[in-house]
Each structure stands twice: as C-alpha cells, then as structure tokens.
Write a structure and sequence with these properties.
This protein is of the alpha/beta class. Helix 18 crosses helix 19. Strands 13-14-16-17-18-19-20-21 form an eight-stranded mixed barrel, surrounded by five helices. Strands 2-1-5-4-3 form a five-stranded antiparallel beta sheet, with helices on both faces. It has 27 helices and 21 strands. 50% of the residues lie in helices and 19% in strands. The chain is elongated and about 135 Å long.
C-alpha cells in the first residue's frame, strides 16, 4: 500500500473514539495518570464500547462496567459524565453508522447508571466510615469525642449527598445543607416533619415494610430508589440508604438517612428510552416499540384465551415519486403530516407506529371482530384524502391498507404480520387507494407464489425447465408454417407447472432474464435440427421475450452469438413481445428491436388489441407480425351463432395489419367454423387447439414429416389452452 493509499484508509473507530473522548474529558476531573496512561485507559474503554454496540445483539450492559471504571480512574468531575454521554450518543453513529443509534443510546444510559452507582457507592462507603468513626468515638475520652464530633459535623455539613438523622418514632432531628437544598425546606421546617410526611403515592408497599423491619431492629440498613416531593411540589427521584444506629447495648437508637438526587439520571434514561422506542421524524412508536407491544399481546394469553387482535398495515401510494421529484425534505414533511392524521384516527387506544420508510401500522388490541378494523381503515383513508399543502402546492397522498383480525390463540405475532404484509400487497395489486381484508385462501396462494419466487433462481440454475411447441398454421391450407415455444417447469415436488404460475414471479425477481436465455437457446437448437432435416420446409420458431429481457444491453449480441453457435438462419427465428414492451418511452428496447430486425430476425406483437397501443406509433416500429388476442375470436367459434361485433373488430384489426404490410395471426382457434371465418376475414395464420396442443420437439418433427394439413380438434386434456 502506498503512503497516499494509507492516508486515505478509514480511521480505526476505537482510536477515533478514544481521541475524541480524551479531548472531551480533559480538564474536567483530576486524574492521577500520566498522558500515556490516560490514552491507554480511554482506548481500552473505547474498545469495550465499540465491541458492545457492534455485537449482535448489542450489549448495552457493558456501559455499566465502563461507567464504574471511569469512577475508579477518578474521572469524577461534574462535567465528565455529561460530556461522555453526549460524545457516545453523537460519535458512535458517526463512526459506525446510523444503525447503531438505539444501541448507542442504550449503552449511554447504562454507562450513566454505572457511573452514578460507582460514584454513589464510593460516597456512601465514605459516609459509612464516618458514621462508624462517630459511633466508635463515643467509647473514647470526652476530648476524643468532641474532636470526632467536630470532624463529623464538618463532613456532615460539607457532604454532597443529603444526610438526615431521625429518632425511632420517625421524627426528623437534624439534616445537612445538601438535604435542605434538595427538598427546598429549611432545617427548622424539616424538624417539624416526620418520615411519614415524605411518602409518595407511587411508593410500593414493600418500601414501608422494609422501614418497619428496620425500626424493629430486624435489619440494619436497606437501599432503594424512591420518589419524593420538593416543597414546591416538583418531583425528585432519590437513591436512599437508610441505616439503623444502635447504642452500646445494641438497642436501636437513631435512624440515619443518606439520599442522593438521581433525578437527572432518570430523566436521561427516560429520554434515551423514548428515543429507542420512537421514530425521530414522526414521533410515533417505531418498529421496536410495535414489536414489543405485539409480542406482549401473545405472551400474556393462555391457550383458552378468547382475546382477538388486529392490525391495519398501510403503505403510502406514490410516495417515492413525491420524494424523488420534490425532494426528501418535502417527503419528510408529508410523513409528519400523515403521522398526525393517523394519530387522529386512533381514538380507541390503538397503537400507531411507523415501521420504516412510508410504511405504518395500527395495532388494535381486544378487537372483537373485523368490523372495528374495517371502520378504522376507512377512517384512515378518509383522513388521508384531503390534499396536503406542501412545497407551494396541494399534494394528494393515498394509501393501501392490509387488514388482519384474528383470535390470539389461532396465530402468532410473526404470522399475523406476514398475513398483513400479504394482504397489503393484495390491496396494492387491486388498484391501490383501498383496503383489503385478510383472506386465508388468498394467503395460501400468495404463500405458494412467494415459495415459487424463492425457488426460481435455483430452478433455473439446475435446468428444471423444458420447452413445448404449438404449431402456427397457415389458414389457407392448414399446414404448419412455424411453432411457438412455450416453457414449462418440471418442479421436483409439484410436477409440471404452467407458465401462469411462474412467469409473473420470474419477472418480479429478475429470474426471467436467465430463464429467457435458456428458452431461446432450447428453441434455436430444436429449430436448427428441423432445418437440417427439412430445409426451407422446416417451421420457424417464435419465442416470447419479456420486457425486462428487451432492456438488457447485451440482448442483440447474445442472439447473434446464439444464431452463430447453433447455425440457425436468422429468418427462422421470430421473437414475440407485448404491446407494452413495444410502446415504452425508453430508447434501449427499441434499439434492441432495430438490431434484431437488421439481423433478419422477425418481430411479432403478442396478444395484440389488449393493450393501449398508439396505432400511428405502431407503423414506425420494426414489426413483422401481429397476433390477435384469442378473446376477439371467441364469438366466431359456433357455426350458426356468430357475433357481428367480434367479426367487425377482427376485420378491422386484420385490415390494419395488412395496411401496415404485417402478417396477422389469430390466437385461440378452437373450432373449424372459427378457422373458416378468420380465413374469410383475411387472417394469415392461426394457432390453437383446433390444430394441435403444445407438443415436444420430436412430435413437431413427425408432424412436418407427415406433411398432412391440420384441422381436426384434438381431445382437450383438463381444459388446457394456448399458453397455459
């Protein structure tokens, strides 16, 4: 590595944190260490911190040890803890990335706790030593007693924590200045109070049971955290150590209280906890809070529970467009407004949470039926309907909502959210801007779809697909002119699967690109074998190419290499594309078509008439064939019952194709009368069950070898049809 490369290497996070830490705490405490000892000590602590937040799961409790070691090293100045906590909260995400924010905040909180506990223990140990010294001094001479009392009085008055002395009846006899500052009472006012006057409504019964045991002499001391009220009414949180003072005969004589104000630490911990469980942008509950609340619903219910739970899982429609076009600042303000509107819909104690991005969820505990969830979903859609005044214009935001409501004993938290995710996907697929209720049947279908999607890459790699061919027949003489390649999946467990089950998932996952390459290679190889046997009488092969394949930059060169490798003449290959793929505004697909056409490959438009083609645009495209969708010929199947509308539509489309000098192929030809009408209307070719189903390559060869016209409809096994 060169010196320049070394300078560009990222800094070690431990060294960076240790350096920043040393800069922050320098001068805040008296530390009896040399400079090299200080650097080594802080680097060791920085290593503990970085390892803790990087762990999976994070180990925030490591902060306790770090806090104690700071106190042990005499980092006890008033500003040391504050600067350390702020440094960790800011520096760790900057060094390790935003994913460590919750872990960094949690570790900062435990560090503060460990620091305070160590500082408190050290102080309390010192005070305990003072108390014992005072009691021991009573056994010495009067002069020694006076000297000891003087020392005690000095420490009593100068102690940083509050100290109070009371009798066994609970009357307060004396308090130090720290205690008066803590409560806002004067020493005289304290002497008019009893321990019972310091109760708090939140005190647990166990607190006073411990106190009664101490008064009876059963225990010598106890420690706990307890809330108190200042004279002003403001609440404080104190760490209380209450000890019993016995006389020389062991009889309880006094009670000694030492109190440390830990209100700031509590507020810091509460703030860190709030940040760990709330989304910083919208201030809604975050994913962690929602997950914890949902898990609690299931963990506290028994097998005989009749309780029900529901969620509305929603995703904003078109949010990415707004974010990309108007900027993230506008997108953030939109999310904040959406969060506010969602909060106004939660009128029955529902939990509204942001799951991330533009996904939100509303948890309904004790739902008592799906009607409540549906009403909530409708309220949400109504609340989001009014335009949002943002970026100097009124923006409309919609949402799709998946509604799931189930009995707690019949599901789990993960299954409930999986069902909500699938239902949300269904709502989007049905047109967006709507809600959909969970349908177990649809859930199973989507689960099967997702399972197939996950298995597709491996299936393509293991060559689990094969190709069948359906003849393309001349309607003039019913002889084979070409074949369409139709792919099938030989699933190892489910058997042969139709393309309708896997083409959609293949396009969504991107597996369609590699699958398309395989099908194209199978088809060209078989077409070359037919060409070797039959020469110019061999059928051409037509292969479907997905829009995503067409966008691949290397498609033309791949096809050229394949034709050269197999030796198939380019005019024996035809590629089929949908109208949508042909009429895209993107330049790459059209450039690919021009390249294929220039090579001599024929181009066909599949399912013509079902899209939204611009007909004037169609004449400019490099197209040779249009294949009429089978739905247009359905009204022509019966000999005596002919639909004149269908006839007119087909006639118009045929005339259009011929006007553009295109070959017109009719799909879905199933009866002889239908074939006759299509021929009379001018269709050039036909494809369908009247002529043949999808067949293996060897059957196509026998069919061409026989040379007989096709036309008698075969028996249809199980209702199979073209493309199925």
């Amino acid at each position: 590595m060169t010196e320049q490369d070394d300078r560009r290497a990222p800094p070690d996070p431990v060294d960076a944190l240790a350096t920043a830490w040393a800069d922050e705490v320098e001068g805040t405490s008296y530390v009896p260490m040399a400079a090299d000892e200080l650097a080594a000590h802080l680097r060791e602590l920085a290593g503990l911190v970085v390892d803790a937040v990087r762990a999976d799961p994070p180990r925030p409790d490591a902060g306790v040890e770090v806090g104690r070691r700071l106190v042990s090293a005499h980092f006890t100045g008033p500003a040391t803890l504050e600067r350390t906590v702020l440094l960790l909260a800011e520096a760790l995400p900057a060094l390790l990335g935003p994913d460590v924010v919750p872990a960094a905040h949690a570790l900062a909180g435990t560090l503060a706790g460990g620091y305070a506990a160590a500082l408190r223990d050290r102080t309390l140990d010192e005070q305990e030593a003072i108390r014992r010294a005072v009691l021991a001094a009573r056994h010495h001479t009067e002069q020694a007693l006076h000297a000891s009392e003087a020392r005690f009085r000095a420490m009593f008055h100068e102690a940083a924590i509050g100290i109070g002395l009371g009798d066994m009846d609970g009357r307060i006899l004396e308090v130090n200045p720290a205690m008066t500052r803590m409560f806002g009472h004067t020493a005289d006012e304290f002497r008019r109070l009893t321990v019972g006057d310091l109760t708090h409504p939140d005190d647990a019964p166990s607190v006073w049971r411990l106190y009664e045991r101490l008064l009876r002499g059963e225990i010598d001391n106890f420690r706990l955290e307890k809330r108190f009220f200042r004279r002003s009414g403001k609440e404080i949180v104190g760490h209380l150590t209450l000890s019993l003072v016995r006389d020389e005969h062991g009889r309880p004589t006094y009670q000694l209280a030492m109190l440390e104000d830990v209100s700031e630490r509590h507020r810091l911990q509460e703030n860190l906890q709030y940040q760990a469980y709330h989304d910083p942008l919208t201030e809604l509950a975050n994913r962690a809070k929602f997950t914890e609340r949902l898990e609690r619903v299931f963990t506290r219910e028994g097998p005989d529970s009749t309780r029900r739970v529901g969620v509305c899982f929603l995703d904003l429609d078109g949010f990415k467009t707004i974010n990309d076009s108007l900027g993230h600042s506008v997108g953030d303000r939109m999310l904040q407004e959406v969060a506010r509107r969602l909060g106004s819909c939660a009128t029955g104690g529902e939990l509204v949470a942001r799951m991330g991005g533009d996904e939100f969820v509303v948890l309904v505990e004790d739902s008592h039926g799906v009607d409540r969830l549906v009403a909530l979903a409708e309220r949400v859609l109504a609340a989001l309907a009014p335009p949002l005044p943002l970026a100097g214009q009124e923006l409309v935001v919609g949402a799709s909502i998946g509604v799931v409501e189930q009995a707690v004993r019949e599901t789990t938290a993960s299954e409930l959210m999986r069902a909500a995710d699938i239902t949300l996907y269904s709502a989007k697929a049905e047109g967006r801007g709507r809600w959909a209720v969970h349908d177990p049947g649809r859930d199973e279908a989507e689960t099967a779809r997702f399972t197939l999607s996950a298995a597709l890459p491996s299936a393509v790699a293991h060559d689990e697909f094969f190709v069948l061919y359906q003849p393309l027949v001349s309607l003039a003489d019913h002889r084979v002119r070409g074949v369409e390649a139709l792919v099938r999946w030989q699933h190892p467990r489910l058997g042969v699967l139709s393309p309708s089950l896997f083409i959609g998932p293949a396009e969504e996952t991107g597996s369609i690109v590699e699958l398309g390459r395989r099908v194209l290679e199978y088809a060209c190889r078989d077409a070359r074998a037919w060409y070797d046997e039959f020469g110019d009488a061999a059928p051409f092969v037509s292969v479907n190419v997905a829009q995503r394949q067409l966008a691949e930059p290397g498609l033309v060169s791949e096809v050229a290499a394949l034709l050269e490798r197999t030796g198939l003449p380019p005019d024996r290959l035809q590629v089929e594309l949908t109208e949508r793929a042909l009429t895209t505004d993107e330049g790459a697909p059209l450039k690919a078509l021009d390249g294929l056409r220039a090579m001599g490959v024929r181009i066909a438009v599949d399912d013509f008439g079902t899209g939204y083609s611009n007909l004037s645009y169609l004449r400019k495209l490099p197209v040779d064939v249009i294949k009429l969708d089978g739905s247009f010929g359905e009204g022509l199947r019966e000999e005596e019952l002919s639909d004149p509308v269908d006839e007119r539509i087909v006639g118009t489309l045929v005339a259009l194709g011929h006007a553009l000098d295109l070959t017109v192929t009719a799909e879905g030809v199933e009866t002889a009368p239908q074939a006759a009408r299509l021929r009379a209307l001018g269709c050039d070719e036909g494809q369908g069950w009247l002529f043949a189903p999808a067949l293996p390559a060897s059957d196509i060869a026998r069919m061409v070898r026989r040379g007989a016209p096709l036309g008698d409809p075969p028996v249809r096994p199980g209702g199979d049809r073209l493309g199925a």
